[in-house]
User: Fold these one by one.
Assistant:
Number 1:
Amino acid sequence: MWGYQKRLAADLSRWKANGWLTDEGEAQIARELVSNRRNFGLAPALGVLASVLLAFAVMSFVAAHWQDIARGARLVILFASMWTGYAVAGMFGARGQSGMSDAAILFAVAVFGASIALISQMFHIDGHAPDGVALWAAGALLSGVLLRSNAAVAFAMGLVAVWGALETFERAAVFWPFLLGWAAVSAAFLWQRWRPGLHLSALAVSAFVIALGYVLSDGHDHALVVALGLMAVVSGLAIERFEPAWHVAVEPVVGYGLMTTFAGAMALQFGENPSGVALIVMASLTLLVLIGSIAYGMSTRRPSAIWLGYLGFSIEILALYAKTVGTILGTSLFFLVAGVLVAALAALAWRLAHRSAESERSS
């Protein structure tokens, strides 16, 4: 949001200087931005940190004096702390201080999670540990939806990810129910129209797909990860081509698809120990995809695709150098071929841009 406002401010000045925007129009746009801006000040940020610290203080105090506190008093402390958090959240919400309200809700949700563990210990309830995390995630999601707290829903997504990871490690198999929890939290993000939350959803499902390569086929199914990532990229490009109105969804789909593809390609190249020829072929294809990401980002003015391409290209080159440093001739040959390839692509891109500029001037 901050970056968007900065770019928009620069655009408004340019549009006004070119005579495309009136003073009245600029003032109306400024008022619209102020009315729609979320409360991202220092106070809410510090409030969130304070809520985390206070929640740990309550949990630490109760845990340290657990045996010295009567059973009924334990329950009173836990439930009173949780509901105090919700009451404070309601007070801040009534004043229109959404950031501080989110901080108080996070405190209550954190105490709820501690209560699950401590009450289970109190009544000697032996259960499956990930089930407690799932219950905690459900409580956080319910609080986030009922109280319209984006922070609580984001916390729920983190808990769902932890739940899925714990189950996967214990079972040593794909834990498909994770997708149900992921879908529920993602639906809450959509309902609350919180775009950063959708990025969290995309990141979580990307991690799930990447993990498939390390679980399926005894941990050697990274080709599937590459295929799924490329499918996401192609889907995003198809959306942009045939449904321009959905352009907002294109950037994250393409971006996370590229990230997933790159993660799978890195595992294939440096985790599976391919032969020299296979490594060069896979590395060349990976570099082509990353160069395509840079070209796509530049042509569509999407910085995320550009920087993802630059970062991936650098990581790929460094990883290749580290893997082939023992064979100087092979390393030199690869970098020579890669350099010539990139130079040829640069020349082709320059000629296309030059031809496009000439056609625009002639028209």
Number 2:
Amino acid sequence: MSAREHRAVTVTGLIAGFAIAATLSSCSSSTPPSTDDVLKIGAIPDQNPEKLNRLYGSLSAELNAALEVPVKYIPVSNYAAAVSAFRTGSLDVVWFGGLTGVQARLQTPGAKVLAQRDIDAKFTSVFIANGASGLRPITSSDQLVQLKGRRLAFGSESSTSGRLMPQYFLAENGVSITDLAGGGPGFSGSHDATIAVVQSGAYDVGALNEQVWRSNVEEGRVDPTKVAVIWRTPTYADYHWLARPDLDRRFGSGFTERVQNALLSLSAETEAGSEILELFGAERFIPARDEDYKKIESVGRDLGKIR
């Protein structure tokens, strides 16, 4: 090969190399961020999907601005799926009920409780009855024996306010679930659905989250001529935010604390904060600790929901 031919081949090779490098650079700049760069939030599906999508869509946007990282809400199909997704890392920060939060922490060592709503420190469930059932308001817990032989609906099998604590208070007052019509309760799947099945008459009585009940009443989704509250439970700790243990490694030192502060800083004085807190049925978020849920863990073990 002549010197002129050698130079031509070299130049051609360099041009090709530059083209390949440019192509790779272009592809790299257009590649979407890895999932490790996205904070994935989730929640137990305790209400209708439309409301959940609105709530967590708004919250994702607010957290995105506060944390300066992409935030994505990923819905799950049921309560157990939320616990599983948190354990495997498919979800990073999750809004759990008391029971599912305890289950998730036990399955994910190092997970941290971040916050609860102001209403969660002393939460309550309500028992509602269909008007045609003949059930009347219960003025003392010993009157719960009236529910023996009745068709009773819980929400999800893993719901704290729609199953665990109502079942616990029934047992405390002499009513076993085997005393119910059919030898046990029905499970509607969510608090909204419990209202629907009791209002329709498919069940005589149902137990659910009081905050969801009030929200449905205020939004005109309850017919007061067909269904009403007959008993309110004693208080217990319930919902809370839980964060995976690897957030600081993935997003930088102190990131978990930043997420916590972003939640605690939500304020009704801003338009976005006001909408989010209203949808949560709260005035603010407050700090929470693992210890707040010891009672839930104890009841969960007694009823075989935690092993």
Number 3:
Amino acid sequence: MVRATGAVLRLCMKKIELEIRTADPVYVQIERFLRRQILTGRIGPSEQLPSTNELVRQLQVNRASVIKAMAHLRAEGLIDRKPKRGTFVKSSVDRSVIGVLIGENLSDETSYFQRAVCKHLREELMSMQDRYWTYRVYDGLFGLDAQTDFRQSPMFQNLSADLRNYPFKGMIQVLGGLSGTQASYLAFNLPTVRLGPPYQGTSPEVIMDYYRFGRESVEFAVRRGLRKIFYLRAIYEVSGKTVDLDGVDDAVRALKLGAVETRQLHPAMIGGPHLEQAGYEQARALVEEWNARGENGWPEVLLISDDIAARGVARSLADHGGEAARKLMVLVMANKEIVHHYLVPVMRYEFSIKRVAHELLDVLWKRIVGEPLPDLPVKIEGNLRQ
């Protein structure tokens, strides 16, 4: 509990009283108080606020709290600092906007994850009490050629126009396998945070802990007495060896297993429908291959690193796998808040989309207001659901 003070803020001959006494940090109380005074009109448009030193004296608080509160209000677009003149309430206040850039078309049936990210981003913004924020979503970036029609696409044109008309403060990118060239078109000189995995030299700020998925999935299978493991990898290919494979390999060495055979899915195009179809076709080919090997040709465990790809795999196993498929343990990297109805039993290694949304907004907010960032990338840990 912070100490109680009966602080009086004097603005243009008005007395505005702020009593600091709640358990919230002092800067949060100052920020909340000033925001409400501005939004209710008690501190009017174009009215000048006291200087930092004057606010410290009047409110009887430390300087760092005042500076942090004012930085947050500037980030929201409620006040504006004019060099050599001071800090003023903006003449008109619009909600500060965050752009959310999505690779898939949200109208696609398989875009469960992307829609859930948007849902939880909205809930996170609504939970920020009276902060004056909203977001706008731009989807359908996949399938556009980097050299010709990307910047001429309706999505890109709409986004470019909105940037001229709305007070954007930052961008969240959920782009999957977008090319580095395309990603460079989306910088817009704004604070940005990107959800992984990395691709073509990019460095995402938030990423699922793929290493733990690879390692813990293999360890779980071995604890169940299953040692013949096959990994169907649905993470979009990137250059170099990736951490999910490092996790698998480290578990193999520690447990003294034979090599885990791995195949990479190659969908015809980026996007959920193509990934699901690629999973179906690859599983059909694998069933033929495993059957051709004879009685012991099938693995005991099939790891799949994407729940949409796993839908196609499960459908194919149900169509073509026969009795052997029913003995196979299928373990899928999945999303905690989304439940698919597969045609075969599956185990799920789940990541929380709600946590993804929280971390994306947290990193972006810190970039907007200039606060220290956490260690990057932020890794979202998953857990086996048995």
